[in-house]
Amino acid sequence: MRSWRARLLALILASCSPDNSPAQETDLPRYLSDRGTGIPTSMFGSYVREAEFLVYPFFEYYVDNNLEYKPSELGYGPDVDYRGKYRASEGLIFFGYGITPGLAFEFEAAVISATLETSPQDTSAAPQEIKESGLGDVEAQVRWRFSEETEDGPEIFGYFETVFPLQKDKQLIGTSDWEFKLGAGFIKGFEWGTMTFRAAAEYARAEAKIESGEYALEYLKRLSPEWRIVAALEGNQLDEVTLITEVQWRFLPMATLKVNNGWGLTTNATDLAPEVGVMFSL
Asked: What contacts 180, CB < 8 A, 6 or more positions away?
């Protein structure tokens, strides 16, 4: 008769076997081989299936040596544009759940510490260095699939995002008023990889106007059952474009290490934004 330790070990190994993993999908058509059957989430190269629960704790760091700011927006005077040095470290948690095969919900929250060194040309009353820390952006999304991908046609999906106004008195971090985003996208898989395009419109209640929001063109390729790579161009307007590169390593059937970096391609984009985290699929 096996000891309780042996029985416990057997149970753990059985629950972690590839056959029992929500992330494992077999006998897929060629066009789904990179991504599987899940709905795309807001995390690059990550998808959620029905009854699957994703948990993604991650860390991100920001380096921007020419952040555009106005002293008036910081509460220090004139409505003039300057460029300062910005640094921030952020710890985030992401949750995603597949409600049905065509409907998913996600939630994300952050804590952040940020520093802005103001420009030497700034003649306002702003101090040389401004520091803020606390709760960062807190947001929720509903994502749905309009139509599934076929051999000849793309998948079409949509999403609605709400950013909650939980930082009324902060200028560098968080969100001070309601923000909403409505977007749509297309996904098509090929032998050489999977392409996704998405774009959204945004409404910020503080400014009371609708504007074009984020857009992205994403490439995903599965190199092996354990390894995938992602490359994406993400932008907001035409003067804030970032190249995202990511490597994903599924080191356990239910755990994937994600390491990426954002490379600012335009003046108003953040210069560098490395990110690392582990996504758990339950």
From this structure: 160, 161, 162, 163, 202, 203
If we measure between CA atoms, which residue out of 105, 176, 182 comes closest to residue 141? 105
Residue 8, pLDDT > 60, answer no
Q: How far apart are CA 130 and CA 151, in angstroms?
A: 54
DSSP secondary structure code for residue 254 in this structure: T
- Listed in sequence order, the residues at least 6 apart from 215 whose beta carbon sits closer than 8 Å to its beta carbon are 197, 198, 199, 200, 234, 235, 236
Q: State the DSSP code for 72.
A: G
pTM reported for the whole predicted model: 0.89
Q: How many CB atoms lie within 10 A of CB 157?
A: 23
pLDDT tens digits for range 193-244: 999 999 999 999 888 889 888 999 999 999 999 999 999 999 998 889 999 9
Find tokens 């921030």 and name the residue. 88
Closest CA to 238 of 271, 204, 269: 269
Closest CA to 243 of 277, 275, 217, 268: 217
Where are the chain's structural domains? Answer: 23-209
On whether the CB atoms of residues 89 and 132 are closer than 8 A, the answer is: no
